[in-house]
Amino acid sequence: MAKIIFITGTDTGVGKTVVTALLLSYLRQGGCNALAMKPFSSGSRADARLLRSAQENLLTLDEINPFYFGQPVSPAADAGARKIRSLDIVLGKIRAMGKRCDVLLVEGIGGLMVPLGEKYTVADLISRLKCPVLVVGRNRLGSINHTLLTVKALQAVGVKRVRVVLGEDKKADISARTNCKIIEKMAGTGPVFSIPDLGSRASLPREIKINVKYLQIMLAGMLGSDIFDIVLPERGEKRLFNITR
Fold this sequence. Notes:
Layout: E1 3-9, H1 16-29, E2 34-37, E3 40-42, H2 46-54, H3 61-64, E4 67-69, H4 87-98, E5 103-107, E6 115-117, E7 120-121, H5 122-129, E8 133-139, H6 143-156, E9 162-168, H7 179-187, E10 192-195, H8 205-231
Parallel strand pairs: 1-5, 1-8, 2-5, 3-4, 8-9, 9-10
Antiparallel strand pairs: 6-7
Helix pairs in contact: 1-2, 1-8, 6-7
């Protein structure tokens, strides 16, 4: 079974897919058999298409995104799109994909409390997977509250390995100067990673490949030793992939 990392967000539209695509491209360029999926999406499949491109179209859209809902609402709210799936069925899809790779990145939908089906949320899915989690947010006014609430909610369901990633806005407000330091101190989850503003084209496949080279040290830090122990077992050491060639 693959090593799984779950990428969740403090809200919708905070950059989860770009972070997932960057990590996926980084791992694959370094020679790791990594795959990514976004089990749930609603309103659009653009995120799934970006992930498909980042893994050289090895998977179909339905493999990457098995539960698609046409309306831009939570999956549980769009009951007319298809029958709501049980949590066990969702876990089965993820674990089946995990058997096909060494590292599986799983991107969530919205934040932790988004209802996915009857009586279960994104947080419940993460709790059952028992995997490390990356929390993605924006570095702006309000991010301290949203990020700490998310981290505390993860800890409440038993998640012990959490890392925080904040994306910078093009026009940063004054809070952006101190948010990372305060979150790092109060969350107690280790360093908070700050991704610079990558521009309006950041979600294009070509830009993902370019930005991976620019951000590779930071991406290695996000993955941490958990992943390097898996993808470099023959070396038995923790180092950065050299993908600048």
